[in-house]
Amino acid sequence: MAVKIRLARGGAKKRPYYRVVVADSRSPRDGKYIEKVGTHNPLLPKDHADRIKLDIERIEYWLGQGAKPSDRVARFLDAAGVLKRDARNNPNKGKPGTKAVERIEEQKEKAENAITAAAEAEEAAKAAAKAAAEAEEAAKVAAKEAAEAPAAEVVAEAPAAEVVAEAPAAEVVAEAPAEAEKKDEKA
């Protein structure tokens, strides 16, 4: 006869209460058992004293007789210091599934696309700002030249206007703004 130390469920629906029992491994979970050796109430807080109650002397006796504890009972016994439980290792349990991996890859791709789009937008903004600054400087220079050029031409042509007849002076003055516009277009 193979003897197990395991949990037998009791309590109402959605209100579990477990008895720690020594039972034949072939008997049903909640069926006939040999001896009750403790209780477990999962509804109580983990640090509560009445959450797990074990009769350590009887459990040690049954372990000496060859009883094998279930995984959950082995955890309780390990916490009580009665039995050393080997830690299980399932490295594949924590790995995401194929659909989760695909979603993660899509999110990474979207993030990379967003980063490159942001970088391109930043570069375009810098280029536009630089072009605007250059255009502003060119406008200032052109305005300065336009402000200085007519005054210099008028001063330079003033003596010529006295010597030359009135008609040629009017032609020179009319040509001066056209030259300033040509300089603006070059800049």
Textual characterization of the structure:
The radius of gyration is 47 Å and the shape is rod-shaped. It has 2 domains: 3-80, Ribosomal protein S16 (S16 Ribosomal Protein, Chain: A, 2-Layer Sandwich), CATH 3.30.1320.10; 98-186. 57% of the residues lie in helices and 17% in strands. It has 4 helices and 5 strands, in the order ββββαβααα. Mean pLDDT is 82; it is low at 160-167 and 169-174. The termini are far apart. By secondary structure, it is of the alpha+beta class.
Number of helices: 4
Give start-end ranges of low-pLDDT stretches. 160-167, 169-174
Task: Categorize the overall geometry.
Answer: rod-shaped
How many strand units? 5
Q: Rounded to an integer, what's the Rg over CA atoms?
A: 47 Å
Strand content: 15-25%
Give the SSE layout.
Blueprint: E1 3-12, E2 15-24, E3 35-40, E4 52-54, H1 56-64, E5 68-69, H2 71-80, H3 98-163, H4 166-186
Parallel strand pairs: 1-5
Antiparallel strand pairs: 1-2, 2-3, 3-4
Keywords, please?
single chain, 187 residues, alpha+beta, S16 Ribosomal Protein, Chain: A, 2 domains, 5-stranded mixed sheet, 4 helices, 57% helix, rod-shaped
Task: Please summarize what this structure is.
The protein is of the alpha+beta class and about 190 residues long. Helices cover about 55% and strands about 15% of the residues. The chain folds into 2 domains: about 5-80, S16 Ribosomal Protein, Chain: A; about 100-185.
